[in-house]
Each structure stands twice: as C-alpha cells, then as structure tokens.
Specification:
alpha/beta, 56% helix, 431 residues, elongated, Beta Polymerase, domain 2, Rossmann fold, four-stranded antiparallel β-sheet, six-stranded parallel β-sheet
C-alpha cells in the first residue's frame, strides 16, 4: 500500500482553473461516495480551499493516472489540463507535504493558521463517509500533532504578516488594554472586515463602522456586535474613538486636519491612534502634525510586515526540521506496524507447527508409548522443523556469498557473525 497525493494550488494553477477544480460542500459528498467505490483507492480525503484542491489517498499501486482521471472527469476537465497544472507526491513526500500544508508552510501567506482548521474539516468529512482506514487515520493524527508542535515551538504564527493584523498589532502596542478602547472603522471592504475581526479578538468592545453604504456596514457591525453609520456621521464619531482605521476607495481624503483638531478638543486631547490603509490616502498627511495623534500609513505597516515575514521565514526553517523529524518518526511507525504483521504471521506458523507436533505426541501417549521417549521425540522433531527453513536459507546465502543476509541472520538468531548452527544430523524430521 502507498500514500499518494494529487494537488493543484496557487503556485501551479491560475485562479480560473482553481475555481473549476474546487469542490462545493454538496460536491464533496458526491466525490466522497465515488472515491469510496473506486477500485484502486482504499482510503481517501479531500482538501478543498480557495487556494488549493488536494486529494490524499492510500492505494495498492503508486500509479496516479486513475486518481487524475477521476479528478478531471468529476470536474469535466481534460486529463492533460489537470496533469499540466498539478503536482504529485508519493509516500514519504506525500506525508511531508501534508505536514507542511497543515503547518502553513505551503500557504500563500506563510504561517497562516486557517488551513489547519480546513484540514480538520476534510478529515472529519472523510471519517463521516467511511473513507479513512488505519493508514490515513494514523497519518492525520501525526499531522495534527506536528502542526501543533510547529505552532507552539517555532512561533511561526506570532508575527502578523497581513495589513489588517499589523494594524491591530500596532494598536496593541499603543494601548495597554484594548478592552477599554473604542474603534472607528471607515470602509466595509475585505481589509476592514479583517481588522474588525482582529479587534474583536483582541478585546475591543465598542466598534463603529462607517461606510458609504450603511447596509454593507451593518452586516459587518452585526458580526462584531458594533454599530453602523454613514460617512457623514464620522465627525461626531471621531471624538469618541481611540482607534481609527480607514480603508476606502475614495479618491480624496475623508479625514482632514481641521476635522481631527475639533475631535481632539472635544476629547480634551486624549490621544487617537490612526492607521490609513487606503491608497490613495483617506487621511490628510497634515494630520500627523497634530499632537496626540499617532498616524501610520500602509507604508509603515509594510515595514512591520517585512520584519515579521523575516521572523516567520526563520521560524519556517525550524518548522521544516520538526517536520523532517516527524516524517521519519511516522515512517518508522509504519515499518514497525508492517513488522508487527510479519511477526504475527511468524508466530502463527510456529504455533501451528507446535500444535501439530503436540497432537502427534498426545496420540502416541494414548497408544501407551513411553512418555520420556515421546517427549524427546517431540523436542527433536520441533527443533528440526523450526530450523529447517532458516538453515536452508543460510546455506543458500553462504553459497551465493550474500554477506548481508548472513549478517542479518546472525543478528536475528543471536549468533556470532559467520557462525551458524544446523540441526543435529543424527536426527531427522522423519523421526
């Protein structure tokens, strides 16, 4: 059995193709049923996000063509198109790749944590659809444990690398406790949405979202338990805000120096932390001239992001070392498991042979044969039969000058290298 991974991600395919190979929730159910019925696939799990679609399988052979054919046919794509933009990992490479994905090392944003939750969702779905056996079950458990170690031991996720997160991190440096701060967010696009969520997680209780379209602002306000207002309400809200973060598509500044001065007077010059993420800028540069204003632009944030990316890359190197060790540990566990099967078969054969000889001995005792003679005969017969095959193979290895096999036999049989023991020639298995 072999582990096999087939994938398409942001590094290998344009967004147009990634959209076509992505699985919707309803498609995941159908795909799971098809994989369960697939002849060449024994176990499987599908990871599908906006940036990647990956199928992890346990198969009898390492040929990827059946899996690639299935993926292309499921999404009505040509085999060649899928093959041209996909990547394949087998066995140890597949295991390492999944660990890197789960740890955020293969993400568009290095170290992002969301992918681990998405992998756990894929694992849960595969389990619900009876697609997991002992192989992938053991692999996923090792992957989750490894990703947790990467998070806790390398600090890869502690340094923000998104504009939204960097803005909130700066706010946390200015204010000792964000739970006592109020925030005014201007705009309601994706960046402001992320800012709002990060602020909420940081403990900010009072949040006002100002936007040209109040309905859009209201959707975000409902999510973070804030308040939605129109842009013309900004002057009133500005005086109440400790934190102001703006990101709109307005062609001209929304906050001017005069408006901010008036707000500071109403606040009795209590400081305001401002971040202007917009390009072109939403806040006039002259605002930075005012006392009690801490104004940061997107360029300032980029410096923070660049520093943090460097820290994440250093952490990623440490993570790679952890992953390499974890892959080796997992491969060792697989070898031990395979050895367990061999040991079980070996012991079963020995037990069957012993039971057969015991029945012969019991029959002889029932016929009135001398007990001591029967026991000696049982001992000789078992010894000869147990040693017959190993002795034969040792002789063959010696004749063929197979030093590797002879050394292995010596270690397995607890003998000195080059010395072997053969059954007593005075006895015979025919006894």
């Amino acid at each position: 059995m072999r582990f096999l991974a087939l994938g398409i991600n942001h590094k290998t395919a344009p967004v147009a193709l990634r959209e076509r190979v992505a699985f919707s929730p309803s498609q995941l159910e159908e795909a799971s049923q098809q994989l369960r019925a697939h002849q060449s696939i024994k176990e499987a799990a599908i990871i599908s996000t906006c940036n990647r679609t990956e199928v992890y399988t346990l198969v009898e052979a390492g040929d990827v063509r059946p899996l690639m054919t299935w993926l292309s046919e499921f999404h009505n794509l040509s085999f060649d198109e899928v093959a041209r933009h996909s990547y394949i990992h087998e066995d140890q490479s597949a295991i390492g790749h999944l660990m890197r994905v789960a740890s955020g090392l293969d993400s568009m944003v290095l170290g992002e944590p969301q992918i681990l939750g998405q992998i756990k969702d894929a694992y849960d779905l595969a389990k619900q659809n009876s697609l997991l056996g002992s192989g992938l079950e053991q692999l996923f458990q090792q992957v989750f444990a490894t990703a947790k170690r990467v998070r806790t031991e390398t600090g890869i996720g502690t340094n923000p690398v998104s504009v939204a997160y960097a803005a909130v991190s700066l706010a946390q440096k200015i204010f000792s406790d964000l739970r006592d701060s109020s925030a005014l967010l201007i705009g309601a696009g994706e960046t402001i949405e992320l800012v709002a969520r990060h602020l909420r997680q940081a403990g900010v209780q009072k949040m006002v979202i100002a936007n040209r379209t109040v309905e859009r602002a209201q959707c975000l306000a409902d999510e973070v338990q804030g308040e939605a207002v129109a842009l013309n309400a900004i002057p009133d809200q500005l005086a109440k805000a400790d934190i102001v973060i703006s990101s709109t598509a307005a062609p001209l500044p929304i906050l001017g120096k005069g408006m901010v001065e008036r707000a500071l007077k109403l606040r009795r010059h209590k400081p305001i932390f401002m971040v202007d993420i917009a390009v072109p800028r939403d806040i006039e540069p002259q605002v930075d001239e005012l006392d009690d204003i801490f104004l940061f632009t997107v360029d300032d944030l980029q410096e923070v992001i660049d520093e943090n990316l460097a820290a994440r890359r250093e952490a990623a190197e440490q993570a790679e070392e952890l992953i390499t060790a974890s892959v080796q540990e997992f491969m060792r566990s697989l070898r031990v498991r395979d050895a367990g099967r061999m040991i079980g078969e070996f012991r079963q054969n020995a037990q069957q042979l012993a039971e057969a000889e015991l029945q012969v001995a019991l029959s002889q005792l029932a016929q009135g044969r001398d007990a001591q003679e029967v026991l000696h005969k049982l001992c000789r017969s078992l010894t000869n039969k147990w040693l017959h095959h190993p002795t034969l193979k040792i002789r063959e290895a010696s004749a063929e000058n197979r030093g590797d096999l002879l050394a292995a036999a010596a270690e397995l049989l607890n003998l000195q290298a080059g010395q072997t023991v053969e059954p007593d020639k005075s006895t015979s298995s025919k006894s």
